[in-house]
Task: inverse folding
């Protein structure tokens, strides 16, 4: 209860939040990232393809799903370079999220363009592949790398 | 369904409001709204509060606001639809009055976003969307969400950074005349273009401000309007709503917001009007690209012609369809839960032809106005048509 007469404010108690997010139903996705692979799901009943992967079909609600790898070449349809970063990304250099369309697999993927790719090279229409990675601080993630 | 009118409006000053807490800020909008309607706090049967919260200390905002303003005992609910929370609160109260549940309802939109530092606010807004798939690994921010749409729109239609800057110049121009606005500063295209990059291609002047603010409206049934002998009721003639996927990867396109298209079609149909009948509009310009996409998605011009509309100054007063005469989210400020209600306040004053200074008053032909309020990047959308 720190009262600051200059600003006329009172500093509240602080609270640190970190959630334990259940991912067991889509564990295969997180496992495959360590092998460099990015997986999506397909509904065995209606054929609906889903990325992000889900354990149930968002269209017909069947829970009979199968996994497939996104192996083909995709095309960047939108991107941005994030300069003003959120609190938990303050130590990260400027990063480049993008959306790429993988026509062959019938899905779109959201990810960073790999940090080693020069920013000038990034444009709408750029051809990319997606690959799983483990970051230096041990997080499982996926990035786009140039396909040509 | 019964007819529903807006009979009272109130608005706080938007900006960094370190001088007031949540309840004191809401009071600045509630008191004038009730006075304008000619009713007291105990007359209110239902209060809906549009607010997202987390950047302020209160966990049950509707409860503490009702208490501070002597409304305790009325029906209460807090509504969340991200940046469209205010419109969700209006829609909820509208439905209660239209259905005959209540005759008099108060809608409050309020947000207190500046009690945390900027990186924390950027993080909390960025987490809205699909946390696991878009934030956990990728730290997508709200400017980033709209920047993705900007690069797609630029690639498809040849939209330029100058076109985006023109929207900022217009909205700063009108905000400068609005006493409630956060920013009072005329800007030039050069100034906007030379401002620091936030999320490329969006720069500082392409972005709305993170602000504190509150707005309130009183809704009444037709019977209540007659009983109170209200001079100039403003009727809610149409309400449309829609939504879109929380995962950008599941969207059909990135050059517009499908939820805007669907919500506006629903609102036009209910009001039995078309976009050509609208005298003036407040559209959701949290970022300059958002205003350009709104022109197109609301049917004010064809898809891809939004940049032409602003280049020709057709969205200034005197143009084909004046947009955001209050300065928009861009320069009036965007306390996210307050925004939808703030739009109702502005349009009610426009329809009553009481806007000050008069340079900001739109000349009325049909006495029809439209509010377009987006939550997230089209994750939620509400379109409301008002008619005098």
Result:
């Amino acid at each position: 209860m720190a009262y600051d007469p200059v600003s006329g404010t009172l500093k509240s108690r602080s609270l640190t939040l970190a959630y334990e997010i259940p991912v067991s139903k889509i564990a295969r996705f997180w496992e495959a990232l360590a092998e460099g692979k990015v997986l999506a799901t397909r509904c065995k009943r209606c054929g609906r393809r889903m990325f992000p992967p889900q354990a149930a079909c968002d269209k017909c609600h069947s829970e009979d799903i199968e996994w497939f790898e996104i192996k083909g070449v995709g095309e960047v349809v939108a991107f941005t370079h994030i300069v003003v970063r959120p609190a938990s990304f303050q130590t990260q250099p400027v990063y480049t999220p993008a959306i790429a369309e993988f026509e062959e697999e019938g899905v779109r993927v959201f990810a960073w363009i790999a940090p080693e790719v020069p920013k000038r090279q990034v444009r709408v229409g750029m051809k990319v592949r997606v690959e799983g990675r483990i970051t230096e601080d041990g997080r499982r993630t996926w990035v786009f790398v140039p396909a040509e | 369904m019964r007819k529903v009118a807006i009979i009272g409006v109130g608005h706080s000053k938007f900006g960094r409001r370190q001088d007031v807490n949540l309840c004191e800020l809401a009071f600045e909008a509630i008191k004038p709204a009730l006075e304008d309607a000619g009713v007291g706090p105990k007359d209110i049967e239902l209060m809906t509060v549009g607010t997202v919260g987390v950047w302020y200390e209160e966990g049950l905002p509707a409860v503490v606001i009702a208490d501070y303003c002597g409304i305790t005992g009325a029906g209460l609910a807090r509504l969340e639809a991200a940046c469209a929370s205010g419109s969700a609160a209006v829609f909820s109260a509208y439905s209660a009055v239209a259905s005959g549940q209540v005759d008099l309802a108060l809608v409050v939109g309020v947000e207190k976003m500046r009690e945390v530092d900027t990186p924390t606010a950027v993080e909390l807004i960025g987490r809205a969307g699909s946390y696991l798939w878009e934030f956990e690994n990728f730290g997508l921010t709200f400017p980033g969400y709209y920047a993705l749409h900007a690069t797609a729109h630029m690639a498809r239609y040849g939209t330029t950074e100058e076109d985006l800057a023109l929207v900022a110049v217009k909205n700063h121009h009108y905000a400068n005349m609005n006493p409630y606005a956060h920013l009072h500063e005329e800007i030039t295209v050069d100034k906007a273009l030379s401002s620091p990059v936030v999320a490329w291609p969006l720069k500082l002047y392409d972005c709305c401000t993170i602000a504190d603010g509150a707005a309130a409206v009183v809704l009444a049934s037709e019977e209540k309007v007659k009983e109170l002998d209200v001079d100039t009721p403003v009727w809610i003639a149409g309400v449309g709503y829609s939504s879109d996927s929380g995962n950008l990867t599941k969207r059909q396109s990135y050059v517009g917001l499908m939820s805007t298209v669907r919500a506006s079609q629903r609102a036009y149909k209910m009001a039995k009007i078309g976009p050509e009948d609208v005298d003036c509009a407040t559209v959701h310009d949290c970022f300059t690209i958002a205003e350009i996409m709104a022109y197109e998605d609301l049917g004010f011009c064809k898809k891809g012609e939004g940049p032409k509309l602003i280049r020709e100054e057709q969205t200034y007063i005197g143009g084909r369809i004046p947009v955001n005469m209050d300065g928009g989210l861009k320069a009036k400020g965007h306390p996210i839960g307050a925004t939808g209600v703030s739009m109702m306040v502005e349009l009610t004053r426009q329809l009553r032809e009481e806007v000050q200074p008069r340079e900001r008053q739109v000349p009325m032909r049909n006495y029809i106005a439209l509010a377009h309020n987006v939550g997230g990047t089209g994750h939620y959308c509400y379109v409301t048509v008002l008619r005098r």
About this structure: The two ends of chain B are 19 Å apart (CA to CA). Chain B has 14 helices and eleven strands.
